[in-house]
TrEMBL record:
Keywords: Cytoplasm, Schiff base, Thiamine biosynthesis, Transferase. 1-deoxy-D-xylulose 5-phosphate binds at residues 164, 190-191, 212-213. This is Thiazole synthase. The lineage of its organism: Bacteria, Pseudomonadati, Pseudomonadota, Betaproteobacteria, Burkholderiales. GO terms for cellular component: cytoplasm.
Protein backbone atom coordinates (compact mmCIF):
# COMPACT_ATOMS: atom_id res chain seq x y z
CA UNK A 1 0.00 0.00 0.00
CA UNK A 2 1.00 3.66 -0.24
CA UNK A 3 1.62 6.30 2.37
CA UNK A 4 -2.15 6.95 2.29
CA UNK A 5 -2.54 3.69 4.21
CA UNK A 6 0.61 3.47 6.33
CA UNK A 7 1.51 0.90 8.95
CA UNK A 8 2.22 2.83 12.15
CA UNK A 9 4.38 1.21 14.83
CA UNK A 10 5.55 3.17 17.86
CA UNK A 11 4.66 6.41 16.11
CA UNK A 12 6.65 5.71 12.92
CA UNK A 13 4.98 5.23 9.54
CA UNK A 14 5.94 2.47 7.13
CA UNK A 15 4.62 2.01 3.62
CA UNK A 16 5.21 -1.76 3.58
CA UNK A 17 3.20 -4.13 5.75
CA UNK A 18 5.60 -7.02 5.10
CA UNK A 19 8.39 -7.56 7.64
CA UNK A 20 11.14 -9.98 6.69
CA UNK A 21 13.73 -11.98 8.60
CA UNK A 22 17.40 -12.21 7.65
CA UNK A 23 18.23 -15.81 8.57
CA UNK A 24 18.52 -19.03 6.53
CA UNK A 25 19.70 -17.44 3.29
CA UNK A 26 22.80 -18.87 1.58
CA UNK A 27 24.71 -15.61 2.12
CA UNK A 28 24.26 -11.92 2.88
CA UNK A 29 24.08 -11.06 -0.83
CA UNK A 30 21.02 -13.26 -1.33
CA UNK A 31 19.55 -11.78 1.84
CA UNK A 32 19.89 -8.30 0.37
CA UNK A 33 18.38 -9.30 -3.00
CA UNK A 34 15.37 -11.02 -1.42
CA UNK A 35 14.63 -8.17 0.96
CA UNK A 36 14.86 -5.62 -1.82
CA UNK A 37 12.33 -7.62 -3.84
CA UNK A 38 10.04 -7.93 -0.82
CA UNK A 39 9.81 -4.16 -0.40
CA UNK A 40 10.17 -4.63 3.36
CA UNK A 41 11.36 -1.66 5.38
CA UNK A 42 11.61 -3.48 8.73
CA UNK A 43 13.99 -6.45 8.85
CA UNK A 44 14.49 -8.73 11.82
CA UNK A 45 17.93 -9.76 13.02
CA UNK A 46 18.63 -12.65 15.41
CA UNK A 47 21.30 -11.12 17.64
CA UNK A 48 22.53 -14.52 18.83
CA UNK A 49 22.99 -15.85 15.28
CA UNK A 50 23.81 -12.90 13.02
CA UNK A 51 26.81 -10.60 13.17
CA UNK A 52 25.91 -6.91 13.30
CA UNK A 53 29.23 -5.81 14.74
CA UNK A 54 29.72 -8.02 17.77
CA UNK A 55 32.25 -10.15 15.81
CA UNK A 56 34.71 -7.63 14.40
CA UNK A 57 36.57 -10.08 12.12
CA UNK A 58 33.46 -11.43 10.33
CA UNK A 59 31.24 -9.92 7.62
CA UNK A 60 28.44 -7.85 9.13
CA UNK A 61 24.84 -7.91 7.96
CA UNK A 62 24.85 -4.12 8.26
CA UNK A 63 27.26 -3.92 5.32
CA UNK A 64 24.51 -5.37 3.11
CA UNK A 65 21.46 -3.91 4.87
CA UNK A 66 22.56 -0.51 6.17
CA UNK A 67 20.40 0.95 8.96
CA UNK A 68 20.13 4.13 6.90
CA UNK A 69 18.00 2.19 4.40
CA UNK A 70 16.20 -0.31 6.64
CA UNK A 71 14.76 -0.35 10.14
CA UNK A 72 16.56 -3.06 12.08
CA UNK A 73 14.37 -5.14 14.37
CA UNK A 74 16.71 -7.08 16.67
CA UNK A 75 15.05 -10.20 18.03
CA UNK A 76 15.68 -12.71 20.78
CA UNK A 77 15.50 -15.92 18.72
CA UNK A 78 17.07 -18.75 20.68
CA UNK A 79 16.19 -17.34 24.11
CA UNK A 80 14.32 -19.55 26.56
CA UNK A 81 14.17 -17.29 29.63
CA UNK A 82 13.15 -13.72 30.29
CA UNK A 83 16.62 -12.91 31.62
CA UNK A 84 18.34 -14.14 28.44
CA UNK A 85 15.92 -12.17 26.26
CA UNK A 86 16.43 -8.95 28.22
CA UNK A 87 20.25 -9.29 28.14
CA UNK A 88 20.17 -9.94 24.38
CA UNK A 89 18.15 -6.82 23.64
CA UNK A 90 20.28 -4.68 25.90
CA UNK A 91 23.27 -5.80 23.80
CA UNK A 92 21.36 -4.99 20.61
CA UNK A 93 20.65 -1.48 21.86
CA UNK A 94 24.37 -0.93 22.44
CA UNK A 95 25.34 -2.32 19.01
CA UNK A 96 22.71 -0.20 17.23
CA UNK A 97 23.43 3.09 19.02
CA UNK A 98 20.44 3.23 21.35
CA UNK A 99 17.92 1.59 19.00
CA UNK A 100 14.57 1.13 20.80
CA UNK A 101 12.39 -0.98 18.47
CA UNK A 102 12.84 -4.68 19.23
CA UNK A 103 11.13 -8.01 18.75
CA UNK A 104 10.74 -10.12 21.87
CA UNK A 105 10.37 -13.87 21.66
CA UNK A 106 10.91 -16.29 24.53
CA UNK A 107 10.60 -19.92 23.44
CA UNK A 108 9.20 -22.82 25.42
CA UNK A 109 11.20 -25.67 23.89
CA UNK A 110 13.53 -26.32 20.94
CA UNK A 111 11.15 -28.77 19.23
CA UNK A 112 8.02 -26.65 18.73
CA UNK A 113 9.53 -23.18 19.29
CA UNK A 114 6.17 -22.33 20.87
CA UNK A 115 6.15 -19.17 23.01
CA UNK A 116 6.72 -19.46 26.75
CA UNK A 117 4.12 -16.92 27.78
CA UNK A 118 4.95 -16.50 31.50
CA UNK A 119 8.57 -15.71 30.57
CA UNK A 120 7.44 -13.54 27.66
CA UNK A 121 5.21 -11.46 29.92
CA UNK A 122 8.00 -11.06 32.48
CA UNK A 123 10.50 -9.95 29.83
CA UNK A 124 7.99 -7.54 28.30
CA UNK A 125 7.47 -5.81 31.64
CA UNK A 126 11.20 -5.30 32.12
CA UNK A 127 11.86 -4.11 28.57
CA UNK A 128 8.97 -1.64 28.49
CA UNK A 129 10.10 -0.24 31.84
CA UNK A 130 13.58 0.26 30.34
CA UNK A 131 12.22 2.28 27.43
CA UNK A 132 12.18 -0.32 24.65
CA UNK A 133 9.45 -0.32 22.00
CA UNK A 134 8.50 -3.98 22.17
CA UNK A 135 6.92 -5.99 19.39
CA UNK A 136 6.19 -9.40 20.83
CA UNK A 137 5.87 -12.93 19.42
CA UNK A 138 3.10 -14.69 21.31
CA UNK A 139 0.39 -17.32 21.28
CA UNK A 140 -2.92 -16.64 19.56
CA UNK A 141 -4.59 -16.24 22.95
CA UNK A 142 -6.74 -13.08 23.02
CA UNK A 143 -6.40 -12.70 26.81
CA UNK A 144 -2.61 -12.87 26.82
CA UNK A 145 -2.44 -10.51 23.84
CA UNK A 146 -4.50 -8.03 25.86
CA UNK A 147 -2.12 -8.46 28.80
CA UNK A 148 0.87 -7.70 26.57
CA UNK A 149 -0.89 -4.63 25.25
CA UNK A 150 -1.69 -3.48 28.80
CA UNK A 151 2.00 -3.85 29.72
CA UNK A 152 2.81 -1.37 26.95
CA UNK A 153 3.97 -3.48 23.98
CA UNK A 154 3.70 -1.53 20.71
CA UNK A 155 2.57 -4.53 18.64
CA UNK A 156 1.41 -8.08 19.29
CA UNK A 157 2.52 -10.83 16.92
CA UNK A 158 0.53 -14.05 17.36
CA UNK A 159 1.76 -17.13 15.55
CA UNK A 160 -0.25 -18.48 12.62
CA UNK A 161 1.31 -21.91 13.21
CA UNK A 162 4.68 -23.18 14.46
CA UNK A 163 7.83 -21.31 13.44
CA UNK A 164 9.19 -22.66 10.18
CA UNK A 165 6.31 -25.10 9.72
CA UNK A 166 4.78 -23.48 6.63
CA UNK A 167 1.38 -24.71 7.83
CA UNK A 168 -0.34 -21.37 7.32
CA UNK A 169 -3.10 -19.94 9.50
CA UNK A 170 -4.53 -22.74 11.61
CA UNK A 171 -6.87 -20.70 13.82
CA UNK A 172 -8.33 -17.68 12.01
CA UNK A 173 -11.06 -17.36 14.67
CA UNK A 174 -8.60 -16.55 17.45
CA UNK A 175 -6.75 -14.11 15.21
CA UNK A 176 -10.01 -12.30 14.48
CA UNK A 177 -10.75 -12.05 18.23
CA UNK A 178 -7.30 -10.54 18.80
CA UNK A 179 -7.68 -8.10 15.91
CA UNK A 180 -11.13 -6.96 17.01
CA UNK A 181 -9.99 -6.06 20.54
CA UNK A 182 -6.51 -4.68 19.85
CA UNK A 183 -5.54 -1.04 20.13
CA UNK A 184 -2.04 -1.70 18.78
CA UNK A 185 -0.98 -3.30 15.48
CA UNK A 186 -1.51 -7.05 15.15
CA UNK A 187 0.95 -8.85 12.89
CA UNK A 188 0.98 -12.55 12.08
CA UNK A 189 4.36 -14.01 12.97
CA UNK A 190 5.44 -17.59 12.17
CA UNK A 191 3.93 -20.35 10.08
CA UNK A 192 3.36 -18.60 6.75
CA UNK A 193 4.26 -20.98 3.94
CA UNK A 194 3.24 -19.32 0.70
CA UNK A 195 1.68 -16.20 -0.75
CA UNK A 196 -1.93 -17.24 -0.14
CA UNK A 197 -1.23 -17.55 3.61
CA UNK A 198 -0.02 -13.96 3.70
CA UNK A 199 -3.04 -12.77 1.75
CA UNK A 200 -5.43 -14.56 4.13
CA UNK A 201 -3.77 -12.96 7.15
CA UNK A 202 -4.24 -9.53 5.64
CA UNK A 203 -7.83 -10.26 4.56
CA UNK A 204 -8.62 -11.12 8.20
CA UNK A 205 -7.55 -7.60 9.15
CA UNK A 206 -4.01 -8.13 10.37
CA UNK A 207 -1.90 -4.99 10.16
CA UNK A 208 1.07 -6.85 8.74
CA UNK A 209 2.90 -10.14 8.35
CA UNK A 210 6.38 -11.13 9.48
CA UNK A 211 8.11 -14.06 7.80
CA UNK A 212 11.51 -15.59 7.23
CA UNK A 213 11.45 -19.29 6.33
CA UNK A 214 8.67 -18.90 3.74
CA UNK A 215 11.02 -16.71 1.67
CA UNK A 216 14.50 -17.93 2.63
CA UNK A 217 13.48 -21.59 2.40
CA UNK A 218 11.83 -21.30 -1.02
CA UNK A 219 13.51 -22.81 -4.07
CA UNK A 220 13.83 -19.28 -5.43
CA UNK A 221 13.89 -16.92 -2.43
CA UNK A 222 14.11 -13.73 -4.49
CA UNK A 223 11.07 -14.64 -6.58
CA UNK A 224 9.13 -15.72 -3.48
CA UNK A 225 9.93 -12.39 -1.84
CA UNK A 226 8.32 -10.64 -4.78
CA UNK A 227 5.26 -12.90 -4.53
CA UNK A 228 4.89 -12.18 -0.81
CA UNK A 229 5.02 -8.43 -1.44
CA UNK A 230 2.14 -8.71 -3.89
CA UNK A 231 0.16 -11.05 -1.60
CA UNK A 232 0.34 -8.69 1.36
CA UNK A 233 -0.71 -5.76 -0.81
CA UNK A 234 -3.60 -7.70 -2.36
CA UNK A 235 -4.81 -8.98 1.01
CA UNK A 236 -4.76 -5.49 2.49
CA UNK A 237 -6.68 -4.04 -0.44
CA UNK A 238 -9.25 -6.83 -0.24
CA UNK A 239 -9.73 -6.16 3.48
CA UNK A 240 -10.23 -2.45 2.88
CA UNK A 241 -12.58 -3.11 -0.04
CA UNK A 242 -14.79 -5.46 1.99
CA UNK A 243 -15.67 -8.87 0.63
CA UNK A 244 -19.19 -9.87 -0.42
CA UNK A 245 -21.20 -11.61 2.31
CA UNK A 246 -21.13 -15.38 2.37
CA UNK A 247 -24.54 -16.82 1.47
CA UNK A 248 -24.81 -20.47 2.37
CA UNK A 249 -26.95 -22.48 -0.08
CA UNK A 250 -28.10 -19.35 -1.87
CA UNK A 251 -27.02 -18.41 -5.35
CA UNK A 252 -26.74 -14.78 -6.42
CA UNK A 253 -26.56 -14.02 -10.15
CA UNK A 254 -23.68 -11.71 -11.03
CA UNK A 255 -25.60 -10.14 -13.95
CA UNK A 256 -28.97 -8.32 -13.85
CA UNK A 257 -32.11 -10.43 -13.74
CA UNK A 258 -34.50 -7.73 -14.95
CA UNK A 259 -35.07 -6.71 -18.53
CA UNK A 260 -34.04 -10.07 -19.93
CA UNK A 261 -34.71 -10.88 -23.57
CA UNK A 262 -37.52 -13.44 -23.67
CA UNK A 263 -37.29 -15.99 -26.46
CA UNK A 264 -40.21 -15.75 -28.89
CA UNK A 265 -42.58 -18.69 -29.01
CA UNK A 266 -42.52 -20.79 -32.17
CA UNK A 267 -45.36 -20.01 -34.63
Amino acid sequence: MTQQDPLIIAGTQYSSRLLVGTGKYKDFQQTREAIEQSGAEIVTVAIRRTNIGQNANEPSLLEFLPPSNFTMLPNTAGCYTADDAVRTLRLARELLDGHKLVKLEVLGDPQTLFPNMPETLAAAKTLVAEGFDVMVYCTDDPIQCRMLEDIGCVAVMPLASLIGSGMGILNPWNLKLIIDQARVPVLVDAGVGTASDAAIAMELGCDGVLMNTAIAGAQNPVLMASAMKKAVQAGREAFLAGRVPRKTYQGAPSSPTSGLITPSKPA
